[in-house]
Amino acid sequence: MTRLEMKEQREATQDMARSMSAQATIFEAEARQREEDRAEALLNENLRSLIVAIDEASTKGLGWHFSNDVFFEGTISNGEVHSYYLGDQGTATKTIDEAVLELRRRLRGTHDHLWELVHTSVDFILPQRDDSVPDFIRKIDAILAIQDKLSPSQSERLTRMRLQDIKSEMAKLMETKEFWLEAVQ
Q1: Strands (E), 30-142
Q2: Residue environment code for 154-174, b if the CB has 16+ CB neighbours within 10 A, otherwise e
Q3: Distances (CA, A) of 162 to 83, 105, 138, 144
Q4: Of 3, 68, 89, 133, which is least surrounded by CB within 10 A?
């Protein structure tokens, strides 16, 4: 009888251990899901913040203007004027993914295009170098640092955005002194 009781007790203990193990597995999965959800929310907020910051900097003067004639009275020219801004005023109607992809598309080839315009235009107006572009680069680094906390699908989403390409293009713009006002003063 004692053996039977001990056997039943051992089986009950084993059942309880399996149950606790299953509960621990569920708890770990739920905790991982909560962390991934927080990371996704942070990713989305940081991406939106990056796009808003770029758009705001563009409206405050982060832009390049080139003309085949002389500028007078600020940005007025009798010639053909080409302007380029990092920001896009149409981002308010786009999803964050569309806005990031559009930013990457706009930046592709920008360095070479600006280089050509700086060296072939009759006159140009360059932006003042400030902390804007380095701040954008820091924001991108912070976004990329979140990747290991994301779910596999969100990590893939972030990879598809190719933020590293955006960062590289911005760094090239920042490093080219001819693109900034102080280079011509």
Answers
A1: 63-67, 71-72, 76-77, 81-85, 123-125
A2: bbebbeebebeebbebbbbbb
A3: 25, 11, 15, 10
A4: 3
CB neighbours of residue 90 within 10 Å: 11
Evaluate if residue 184 carries a pLDDT over 80. no
pLDDT of 146: 96
Residue type, 112: D
Task: Determine the Cα–Cα distance for residues 153 and 150; give it in Å rounded to an integer.
Answer: 8
Count of beta carbons in the 10 Å neighbourhood of residue 128: 10
Task: Enumerate the H helices of 64-125 as residue ranges.
Answer: 96-107, 110-120
Distance, in Å, from the CA atom of 130 to the CA atom of 174, rounded to the nearest integer, reads 10
Residue in 64, 70, 169 with CA at minimum distance from that of residue 118: 64
Q: What band does 167 get if pLDDT is binned at 50, 70 and 90?
A: very high
What is the distance between the alpha carbons of residues 88 and 93, in angstroms, rounded to a whole number? 11
Please tell me the predicted confidence (pLDDT) of residue 183: 57
| 61 Ramachandran zone, left/alpha/beta (phi>0; psi -120 to 50) | left
Q: Are 65 and 81 in contact (CB under 8 A)?
A: yes
Cβ atoms < 10 Å from Cβ of 127 = 20
What's the CA gap between 36 and 148, in Å, rounded?
9
